[in-house]
Specification:
Largest sheet: 3 strands, antiparallel
Order of helices and strands: HEEEHHEHHEHHH
Mean pLDDT: 90
Strand order of the largest sheet: 1-2-3
Strand content: 5-15%
Radius of gyration: 17 Å
Number of strands: 5
Low-confidence stretches: none
Distance between the termini: 34 Å
Shape: globular
Number of helices: 8
Oligomer: single chain
Length: 178
């Protein structure tokens, strides 16, 4: 994946103006919402289906799936190991399609849709990837938006580093026209 240039000054400036209650960014007495339509248009990802405001709980089957993707003895699903496995699998003539799809989606979630400052992706997304035939029905725009809003709320609450889809935040309000 190519590096994405993040203007941290703009992102922090926008995050400082985020109103947790209305989930909008306040600029010059105007409340600018972060809408599903914005996320869908900018990232070109599905916004149909139920809004994902809370991830479904993990079940026993998820832990079996998790063990296939975590790093060896580690408890994490690292972005680097996902990337390496994806690249390796793409060279093979026969692959396990479900594993390939899940790895791609884990990587996409951890690197693009719901990034954090950590080098791994949370296993809490497993329920969304349990049935790969239903992945296309998930409202990925709502997941991305909710994650970004949650991260902005945590930042406003004192979290030192801003997380979430910062390129989305940056594009939403740049350039700011008055």
């Amino acid at each position: 994946m190519p590096e994405i240039n993040i203007n941290r000054v703009i992102c922090i400036w926008l995050a400082d103006r985020y109103d947790v209650k209305s989930q909008t960014i306040l600029i010059q007495d105007k409340s600018l919402p972060i809408t599903l339509w914005d996320v869908q248009c900018i990232l070109d990802i599905p916004a149909e289906g139920p809004v994902i405001s809370k991830l479904p709980p993990l079940i026993t089957e998820d832990y079996k799936i998790y063990s296939r993707y975590k790093d060896g003895e580690s408890k994490n699903i690292s972005l680097i190991s996902l990337q390496e496995a994806i690249l390796e699998e793409s060279k093979q003539s026969e692959i396990n399609e479900e594993d390939f799809i899940r790895r791609m989606m884990f990587f996409t979630i951890g690197y693009i849709l719901c990034p954090t400052t950590k080098a791994h992706v949370s296993s809490s997304y497993l329920p969304l990837l349990r049935d790969v035939t239903k992945i296309h029905t998930i409202n990925w725009a709502s997941l991305t938006r909710e994650h970004l809003c949650d991260c902005l709320k945590e930042f406003k609450g004192g979290l030192k580093n801003i997380e979430g889809n910062l390129p989305l935040l940056q594009v939403l309000y740049k350039p700011i026209t008055c």
